[in-house]
Design goal:
Layout lengths: L1 H23 L3 H24 L4
Helix pairs in contact: 1-2
């Protein structure tokens, strides 16, 4: 259970870190890269957390 909580906290921290770039440097290429990074991180977290059975 603690691994799921830590994964969600880590994903939220990554999101807080990534949101700074498009806010202060609003170039379309940076927004695309940040969106792609956030999407891949969310997908990876989802696959790891949804794939595990409760132990």
């Amino acid at each position: 259970m603690i691994d799921r909580v830590m994964a969600i906290i880590g994903l939220l921290m990554l999101g807080a870190f990534l949101i700074v770039v498009p806010l202060f440097v609003p170039h379309i290429s940076l927004i695309i890269v940040v969106s792609g990074c956030a999407a891949l991180a969310t997908y990876d977290t989802w696959r790891h957390l949804a794939g595990r059975k409760s132990e």
